[in-house]
Design goal:
The complex is a heterodimer of chains A (239) and B (127). Chain A is an alpha/beta fold and 239 residues long. Chain B is mostly helical and 127 residues long. The chains are: A alpha/beta (239), B mainly alpha (127).
Chain lengths: 239, 127
């Protein structure tokens, strides 16, 4: 079935960004077509998280263009992007440890979706969270906290979901379980950009992948096409 | 869940993004306001001159009053408002440049100071 040619939901063109005088991104080009899962892989310090921060308006791009659905959105406020349908789940989950699951989910109601709808969506997708509705988020396991972060991100029914290091600090079994959930979410029509340091699991669910090293995209394509590049990227061999 | 979900979600996202309030570049806006201020001053001067021209054509004070009010009053207001805009936005550029200069000079001074301390430290070390 051929889709009409439309602008990709998310596109970075020649994006550069700096922390003070140190440039972290040296011209990043990245494209997320509608309805795909794109895995952004790379070793620690490659600039993956910075790319996401630039995308979410948390770090300003010094050069280049950020396009959402074909529109140039450099400088747009983070909350405006979130309202438009860009949900970001940061590294470290970003849940409120002293609030209950219910209260954490309620925090997503700022977007105009009422708490009952948010909870209904969250518990139907993640039944385990429903069982722990009144539990403090900080007392749950890492995997459950990540589920809560995902549930909160999805509560606003986003079109684009950005995940930063979903697997961080979690056991491989839990990571596989979470990526199964990501695949289910992708199947509902959400376009997903996943940043990961640990490549293998995410490549199973990704439609496209890109490797980032030293603030640049060094390879991109289908997961099977870039698998060969992974070793050199992670082991630091010159490409 | 099929193609319809992808299409409708993407379509709704496109509409929401199209409605986003994307800020224009501050520098561009400042530059635009600076030129707008200059244009107001120029128009104000022309209006004042036109008022003077009209008023000078008659010796009757009651006939001169409309020229004084529209030419003098409005023209002067345009000149004052335009001058404020020019002052505000040229001053912003000047202050920004001045601040950058101060920071650069401060960095240079710090580097010199560090070099001097290191040189002194080396001297002490050797003696």
């Amino acid at each position: 079935m051929s889709e009409p040619a439309a602008a990709p939901l998310l596109e970075l063109r020649g994006v550069r960004a700096s922390y003070g005088r140190i440039e972290a991104l040296h011209g990043v080009d990245l494209t997320l077509p509608a309805g795909t899962v794109l895995a952004l892989l790379g070793p620690n310090g490659a600039g993956k998280s910075t790319t996401l921060k630039v995308l979410g308006g948390l770090v300003p791009a010094t050069h280049g263009c950020i396009h959402l659905a074909g529109r140039h959105v450099n400088g747009t406020e983070t909350h405006a992007l979130a309202r438009a349908g860009l949900a970001m789940i940061p590294e470290g989950r970003g849940v409120f440890p002293r609030l209950t699951v219910h209260e954490n989910l309620r925090m997503a109601s700022h977007s105009g979706v009422d708490t009952a709808t948010i909870e209904a969506r969250a518990y139907s997708r993640f039944p385990r969270l429903g069982e722990r509705r009144h539990q403090l988020a900080g007392t749950m396991s890492g995997g459950e906290q990540q589920m809560l972060a995902l549930a909160r991100g999805l509560a606003t029914d986003p079109a684009v979901l950005v995940l930063d290091e979903l697997s961080m600090g979690l056991a491989p079994l839990i990571v596989s379980e979470l990526y199964e959930l990501v695949a289910q979410v992708a199947a509902t029509g959400v376009s997903i950009l996943v940043v990961e340091q640990f490549a293998r699991t995410v490549l199973d669910v990704a439609d496209l992948a890109a490797i980032m090293v030293g603030g640049r995209i060094t390879a991109e394509g289908r997961p099977s096409d870039i698998e060969a590049e992974l070793a050199s990227a992670y082991l630091g061999a010159s490409t | 869940m099929g193609n319809d979900d992808f299409t409708s979600r993407a379509e709704s996202f496109r509409n929401d993004v199209a409605a986003l309030d994307v800020p224009t570049s501050t520098t561009k806006r400042e530059s635009w306001l600076l030129w707008f201020g200059l244009a107001l001053v120029a128009v104000g001067v022309i209006v004042v001159f036109a008022g003077y021209w009209g008023a000078s054509g008659t010796t009757n004070v009651s006939e001169q009053m409309p020229y004084l009010l529209s030419g003098g009053g409005v023209g002067l207001a345009l000149v004052v408002f335009g001058s404020v805009l020019v002052g505000r936005y040229s001053m912003a550029r000047l202050l920004r440049y001045w601040l950058a200069l101060l920071v650069a000079e401060h960095r240079t001074q710090t580097d010199r100071l560090i070099d001097a301390i290191e040189a002194r430290g080396d001297g002490h070390g050797r003696s």
